[in-house]
Amino acid sequence: MDWKEKLSLDREHIWHPYTSLIDPLPVYPVESASGVRIRLATGQELIDGMSSWWAMIHGYNHPELNQALARQSEKTSHVMFGGLTHEPAIDLARELIRITPEGLDKVFFCDSGSVSVEVALKMALQYWQARGDASRKQFLSLRCGYHGDTFGAMSVCDPHNGMHSLYSGFLPRNIFAPAPESTFDQECSPLELQAVEEIMAEHHKELAAFILEPIVQGAGGMRMYSPDYLARVRELCRKYHVLLIADEIATGFGRTGRLFACEHAGITPDIICLGKALTGGYMSMAATLCTTQVAETICRGDPGVFMHGPTFMANPLACSVALASIRLLQESGWQEKTARIQEQMQKELMPGNKLPGVRRARVLGAIGVLELHRQVPVGDIQKIFVQDGVWIRPFMNLIYIMPPYIIESGDLSTLTSAMLKAAKHIGS
């Protein structure tokens, strides 16, 4: 089959994410990828601004990560984790405990970010059941939040821009607080905290946990909020005896300029969800960490175990490449890299605030966003981006980039220029 035939088969039979099979968006065939460049089957190269949905932080085809996979594949590619263990899982757990906020010292490995959230929700529910308080069956979440596409995760996503209406009657009904309004460089207002405290005061006896994305709300709107807000929410959770779950799937491993976004507020959640960049984008893997107090409470209750067990839990290949990715990150000067990316994007994207079609430009760490007044016509704008030699995938009214940390200034300028050009086109 040539590529024309292969793309015809793709169009006819393969369902891509958030895409219609009747009127699908165009897809672009990839031949290979290396560094920050994706090479299409046509020979054209695209500068990647997305890190393959925020995960490929070291770029593509990295020799150290390739070697980690190759070495582990010579030993064992997979072994069940029920009743067995292995060195890559033990070493990775030790490293995650070391680098995450202090006190998160129990590790549950799982398959993907959505599953990590499912695990966190189940931990919270089992925790309260083990304490003899089965009435705590609901979760508090933030509007404009996103936590994944599985049913439990969907139930704590924004009820309006999420998928609640499609699955009403099946999704659990949870409670939502207003999205934070204070920006990253502001203190939160008393009114923001008042709204959260009023909800907690009324519903704390029903709440298993408060789940949020710390500092940056990702796919629900790419919003960046005050560390002060996060610190105060941590205090309110303690006051009302509600567990705090931090979804760091998108923000973890340096994306916001700190290794974990919780560090901006100096807080430790009761449970943390990790994924995406955990393996440097090489394999699907996630982890849910919790405090000893949460874990031991669960295990002292009925049935005495945590009720979850994915088939590919702690896959040795994934653990090995995750460990190599974390070590590479720590040795790579990532702080200087993300600071440089942030500084350059602030210079090049913030002037976008003057464009008529732009509602607001914002930058934090290695995240750059243009929020527009209008919905982005994804298929049309994607074609323009590809013509300009960049890979940027907008959604809703947002054009944003989360490039690999290894990106050089010239390539980053190409991305930011393409973003501004697209914003002008949409706003004209």
Keywords:
428 residues; alpha/beta; Aspartate Aminotransferase, domain 1; Aspartate Aminotransferase, domain 2; 2 domains; seven-stranded mixed sheet; four-stranded mixed sheet; 13 helices; 16 strands; globular
Structure overview:
37% of the residues lie in helices and 17% in strands. The protein is globular. The chain has helices at residues 3-13, 51-54, 63-73, 87-99, 113-130, 151-155, 190-203, 227-239, 292-300, 316-331, 334-349, 378-387, 409-427, and strands at residues 30-34, 37-40, 45-48, 104-110, 138-142, 175-177, 207-212, 216-217, 223-224, 243-247, 271-274, 286-291, 358-364, 367-372, 390-391, 398-401. The two termini are 42 Å apart. The chain has two domains: 3-58 and 333-427, Aspartate Aminotransferase, domain 1 (Alpha-Beta Complex); 67-331, 3-Layer(aba) Sandwich (Aspartate Aminotransferase, domain 2), CATH 3.40.640. It is built from 13 helices and 16 strands.
